[in-house]
Specification:
This protein has about 290 residues and is of the alpha/beta class. It is about 45% helix and about 15% strand. The protein has a 7-stranded parallel sheet, sandwiched between helices. The longest helix has 18 residues. About 35% of the residues are buried.
Length: about 290
């Protein structure tokens, strides 16, 4: 029976941890088992339980403090991920093999100095291939902060980062615009044009701000590539909207064909304890704190 995986990617501050936390709570509410694996060796904290944490294997801080290496933050992250790629047996042992595995892999951030993990370095591609060998159906989830989409050129840069990951990993990818719940009603209406963008129209609307003819020509070529091939579309993600979360999850499940091979399970008796009790207790404790 196949297993299922989401590689949760995105720039720093895009809401990867919030996305994972929200999806865990949503899954618990619909009686569905979802686990999280942290693959960011530079992570500081998260408010949800994880089944495996790469920091048990290696941490960026330890690498940076090693006087024989003397790496900075970016070099340290690359070193950690390459070390991880040489120790996939640790991940295999941590994952085990549970029936109907559905795992969110919280990946390192995609930002300046670290985009190479998803472009010219083979680490993430090797991870995908290894997961596929372990019978995982893998989907990429690329997150972009909706508050970042205030200008067309910033939106295009976000699209290019998403495209870099898509082309490098060669897996089904769902692009998500996060933090919609933080936008004002006016901003939400304005952001709608970025969910299913008409790149040529956006280009024309901002043509007066482009003074360089070469830059204008380059931007037009990029917009044409995105628009002509419909390569990038975004789904809105509002952590307070259960229906919206369910729509996002349905898109992801469809991309990895989740549910097609699941066996029918008898409904639980009212006096039986649900499988997600540990998650409910965990989040209840967090609220009390």
């Amino acid at each position: 029976m196949p297993r299922y995986a989401q590689l949760v990617m995105g720039p720093a501050g895009s809401g990867k941890s919030t996305y994972c936390s929200t999806l865990i709570q949503h899954a618990a509410a619909i009686n569905r088992s979802v686990q999280v694996v942290n693959l960011d060796p530079a992570a500081e904290h998260f408010d949800y339980p994880v089944m495996a944490d790469i920091r048990e294997l290696i941490m960026v801080d330890d690498v940076m403090e090693d006087e024989s290496l003397r790496f900075g933050p970016n070099g340290g992250l690359v070193f950690c991920m390459e070390y991880f790629a040489n120790n996939f047996d640790w991940l295999e042992e941590s994952l085990g093999h549970v029936e109907d595995d559905y795992i969110l892999f919280d990946c390192p951030v995609v930002s300046a100095g670290q985009i190479e993990l998803y472009t010219h370095l083979p680490v993430m591609r090797q991870l995908v291939e290894q997961l596929q060998q372990w019978e995982f159906r893998v989907c990429g989830i690329f997150l972009v902060d909706s508050q970042f989409m205030v200008e067309t050129f910033k939106f295009i840069s976000g699209i290019m980062a998403a495209l870099s990951a898509m082309v490098s990993l060669e897996i089904p990818t769902v692009n998500i615009m996060t933090k919609m719940d933080l936008l004002s009603p006016k901003a939400k209406k304005e952001i709608e044009k970025y969910l299913d963008p008409d790149m040529y129209s956006m280009m024309e609307d901002n043509s007066v701000t482009i003074r360089s003819k070469k830059f204008k020509k380059l931007t037009k070529a990029i917009c044409g590539l995105i628009d002509d091939y419909s390569m990038v579309r975004f789904l809105p993600f509002d952590r307070t909207d259960e229906e919206g979360i369910n729509i996002v999850l349905q898109h992801i499940d469809f991309s990895i064909q989740y549910g097609e091979d699941l066996e029918f399970k008898e409904p639980k008796e009212p006096d039986e304890e649900p499988d997600n009790t540990n998650y409910d207790d965990f989040f209840q404790d967090k609220e009390e704190d």
